[in-house]
C-alpha cells in the first residue's frame, strides 16, 4: 500500500517528506494459544518499532501520515501518543473493531484494534510498557461504521463512554453537521485520526478486505476528513486496509491520493 500510493504521487501532491518504512515481520497464520490473537508477539514487537518512529516525528513537530496494511498499526500509533500523554482518537471505519479474543472468529488483531488500544484484551498488546489504556474510551469517537448493525445488540458496538456515530448519522444529518460535531468533540483534547478506507461504499472502494454493502460517499468522507485534519487539535493520521492486489487499474489508489491531497492542501 505505501509503495503504490507513493507511485501515484502521494508525496508530491501533499508536498510531504518521506520518513521511511517500518517493515513488518513475516505473517504467521497460527493463533497464539495464550492471547488467542494471531501474530501477537510480532504485533507487540512491531508496535514498539512503529511507536518509536512516530514518536520521533511528533517530537520534531511533524504531522505524520501513516499508510499501512491492516488496522493493527493503530497499536503502534496509540503507544507513541500515550508515551506523550493523553490523546483522543477519531476512528473512521466501516467496522467498529471492538471484537475481543473471546468473541473474534478469526483471532485477527485488525478486528480488535480499537478494543486493544482502549484497554480490552491481552496485556501483551493492551499494556505495552504498562501504559494501558493507550487511549481512554471516553476520548474515542467511532464514526461511519455499518458493522455491526447499530440497531443490533452486538457486543462490538461502541458503548458509553465512547461516542458512536454510525453511517446512518452521516446520512441523516449530513457530513457537514457530523464533521462539525466530531471536531467540537475534540476542541479541548489533541487527537489522532484513524481512517480505514472500507468506510467507503464498495462502488468507489472495492479494494479492501471486507467490502460490505453500503458505506460513505467520497464527498462525505472528504468533508469529514478535511474538517478533522484542518483542526489545530489533530496531530496526525493513519490510513489502512487498501489492498493494491485487488485494484489492478489503481482506481482506489488515485481516489486515496486525491482525497488526502484535497483534505490537507486545499
Keyword list:
36% helix, single chain, 266 residues, alpha/beta
What this model shows, in words?
The chain has one domain: Arginase, Chain A (3-Layer(aba) Sandwich). The chain has a 6-stranded parallel sheet with strand order 1-6-5-2-3-4, sandwiched between helices. With 266 residues, it is of the alpha/beta class. The chain is 36% helix and 11% strand.
Q: Can you tell me the residue ranges where pLDDT is under 50 for at least 5 consecutive residues?
A: none
Helix content estimate: 25-40%
Query: Element order, helices and strands?
Result: HHHEHEHHEEHHEHEH
- CATH-derived architecture: 3-Layer(aba) Sandwich
Could you give me the name of the CATH homologous superfamily? Ureohydrolase domain
Number of strands: 6
The profile of the biggest β sheet is: 6 strands, parallel
Give me the secondary-structure category: alpha/beta
N- and C-termini, Cα separation: 24 Å
The CATH topology label is: Arginase, Chain A
- Strand fraction: 5-15%
Q: What is the CATH level 1 assignment?
A: Alpha Beta
Number of helices: 10
What is the number of independent domains? 1
- Largest sheet: spatial strand order: 1-6-5-2-3-4
The general outline is globular
Computed over alpha carbons, the radius of gyration is 17 Å
Overall pLDDT, averaged? 97
